[in-house]
Amino acid sequence: MIIRYITLENFRQFSGEHTIHFSSDPDKKATLIIAQNGTGKTTLLESFSWIFYGTCNLKSIVNSKLKETMRPYTDLKIRGEVGLTHLGKEYTIKRYTTMSKSNVQVKLDDSVFSIEMRETDGTLKEYRGTDARALINEIVPKGLFPYFFFKGESIERIGRDISEGKNSKNSEFVKAIKGMLGFDYLYQEKEDLLKVQKQYDNELASNNSDEELRRIQQKYNKAKEDIGKHETELKQIGEDLKSFEAQKKEVSDEILKSGDVSEKQKESLRLAKEIKDIEDEITEIKKEIFNKFSLQGYKLIAQSIIVDSIEMLQKHGDIDKGIPGLDAKAVEYMLSSGKCICGCDLKKNPEHYNALVELKKYLPPNNLGAEITAFNQIGRIYANGGDDYYADLVSLRKKLHTKTEKHSEKVKALAEINEIIKNYPDMTKKKEREQELIGLINDRIKKQGIAETLLGQANDALKSAEKEKSNYSIVDSHIRKLEECDYQVTWLISRLSNFLNRKEREKRQELQEAINEIFLDIFDIDIKIELDNDYGIKLKSGQNTSLSDFENSTSQDAIMAFSFIGGIIKLARNKTVSTSGPSNDIDSETEDAELEVEPYPLVMDAPSSSFDIERIANFCKIMPSIAEQVIFFIKDTDGLYVKNNLRNVIGKEYVMNKINNSETEFEEVK
Amino acid sequence: MEDRELTAREEKERELQIQKNIEDRVRKLERSNYINKKLSSDEMVKKIRKIVEEEVK
């Protein structure tokens, strides 16, 4: 970057329009602006900050006289413009604000910022707003502004900040240093790629592909498995049905062919059962005959004897004159006791006594009359019982005979039927088998229906799973592509990061070497500094200089600041951007890029105020050799000395003349 | 065995080619935009995605 000119209009004490052209001649790279204290050197330096960033370390940018003298309800424009060349293109950096006065009050509008860029082919492009702000930060990073445009009065503070490592806490500064690597576009590429990577990660996170795929696959597998199971089942059922139907047909045909044989077989069975029943009945009758004979047979056998006995006893008439149940002993007792059981005194009534003696003759044991009487009674019953038994026996015999005859008939009929059906199988069993087969066929038909329904359901599930799979395969292939894209982006980020980290290390080393070189060249101090990863500084004493001597030096902060600034300027010169085509090898790309050098200016307000004569001489000798353009605002008292030391490189020279407190003019001397 | 090795090598070559193509195209885009400042960051992200997705296929 080389500054070509600055124009200020109504900016603080620069009322009206003023333009200063800076030398851009590489052989006469210095522009001197000499002024007394209070003329506006610092204001001039701060005006760059206001134009570039809209902020500056001035209480006000308003010209106090203009503010007072402007008429109510009028406007006044405060404007600044810097013309510079950067990377071969011309830029015009513009900022203005409007000061308006109502009655007595004056207010400033928000400033308006824009950048015009003239391409190498002459076309003009204008940037506004965010784009313009981003662009100025690329050209002059805000974090580095205090090092490119610095005030003598703050040089010691800058030095202290550097020594105390405050830069390392200043991310703007670190960012700006990184910007000087010349790989801004690579940092931007990394930033963009990180955004792309984040998008891919978010999209991948929102698609839990594996779980969903597993679910669909499980559904698909289950449907397939069910189909296989039901198909096997149906096949088995089909085979069973075929077999059972064939068997049933065979059996049914056989039954059909057998005509009335089956009826005859039934009749045969019925007859066999009937015969068996008759046999059982015969057995029962026989059993009854025997039982009755055992119990009553004697009645029949003894019947004629009893009848004869009763007839004989009847022929003997008196045999049964005794009193049943009374024996001779009882009568003897009454006779001996002289008293009848009726209470009659036998002694007094001899007729009764004699009657009893007569009775005694017919009483047991002397007489069986009573027994015979009893026998007569029982004998008659027995004699009659024999008749009953006989009648019963006759009846049973008749019944037995009937049954036996019936049995014979049935046996004969069975033999006849069996003769007819003897060559036929058992049709009843066939019919039972037929019924059994019908049952099996019905069972299989029912199972077939169920299996077909389940197979239909499984087929539907399979179709659904296939559809889901098909739909998912679109999603899945999208996810696989996202993963692949994410992988590629991650790979590229990693490659860029490795490269940039290495380049940063190299650049830090370069900066460290540049600072140490300036330490030695300008200030003849053998103190080495080391930069850590965050650009923090660590001092190390050299062979000829003790660290404590340096730390106690009154100008150590200024020395530190100038060395650091010198190092940065030297580094910034190598900020490059290759315009060659893309290469897959970042390293070879940078080698090409580093062939091009971008110059940077050094704008210093009262740089010599902290140094002694010897160090001013060194400073004036070294700084122009580091920077491609030097713009020094020199206090009039130092002017001659600085001019002498810079005499060979001065391209432009101005003197600032203070007209009054609110008016300064520039006089071009050279 | 040889066929399998050949396929693996071809696959590796294909992957390297994809990486090279993506890097070249993204680099060219970033450099071009760095110089011309035509596209916003969001637009760049969209374009980079398009490049990556075109190359990955």
Question: Could you describe the 3D structure shown?
Answer:
The complex is a heterodimer of chains A (670) and B (57). Chain A is an alpha/beta fold. Chain A has helices at residues 41-53, 64-69, 129-139, 145-148, 155-163, 166-169, 171-179, 184-205, 209-257, 261-315, 328-337, 350-361, 369-421, 427-523, 547-552, 556-573, 586-593, 613-626, 636-646; strands spanning 2-11, 14-21, 30-35, 75-86, 89-101, 106-108, 112-118, 124-128, 149-151, 527-531, 537-541, 601-605, 629-635, 650-660, 663-668. In chain A, the strands form three sheets. In chain A, strands 1, 2, 4, 5, 6, 7 and 8 form a seven-stranded antiparallel beta sheet that branches. In chain A, strands 9-12-13-3-14-15 form a six-stranded mixed beta sheet. A two-stranded antiparallel sheet of chain A has the order 10-11. Chain B is an all-alpha fold and 57 residues long. Chain B contains two helices and no strands. Chain B has helices at 2-36, 41-56. In chain B, helix 1 runs antiparallel to helix 2. The longest helix of chain B has 35 residues, at 2-36. Chain B is elongated and about 50 Å long. The mean pLDDT of chain B is 84. The interface between A and B is medium-sized, with 31 and 26 residues.
Feature tags:
heterodimer, A: 670 residues, alpha/beta, seven-stranded antiparallel β-sheet, six-stranded mixed β-sheet, 19 helices, 15 strands, 16% strand, rod-shaped, B: 57 residues, mainly alpha, elongated
Please outline the helices and strands.
The complex is a heterodimer of chains A (670) and B (57).
Chain A: E1 2-11, E2 14-21, E3 30-35, H1 41-53, H2 64-69, E4 75-86, E5 89-101, E6 106-108, E7 112-118, E8 124-128, H3 129-139, H4 145-148, E9 149-151, H5 155-163, H6 166-169, H7 171-179, H8 184-205, H9 209-257, H10 261-315, H11 328-337, H12 350-361, H13 369-421, H14 427-523, E10 527-531, E11 537-541, H15 547-552, H16 556-573, H17 586-593, E12 601-605, H18 613-626, E13 629-635, H19 636-646, E14 650-660, E15 663-668
Parallel strand pairs in A: 3-13, 3-14, 9-12, 12-13
Antiparallel strand pairs in A: 1-2, 1-4, 4-5, 5-6, 5-7, 7-8, 10-11, 14-15
Helix pairs in contact in A: 5-16, 8-14, 9-14, 10-13, 11-12, 14-16, 14-18, 18-19
Chain B: H1 2-36, H2 41-56
Helix pairs in contact in B: 1-2
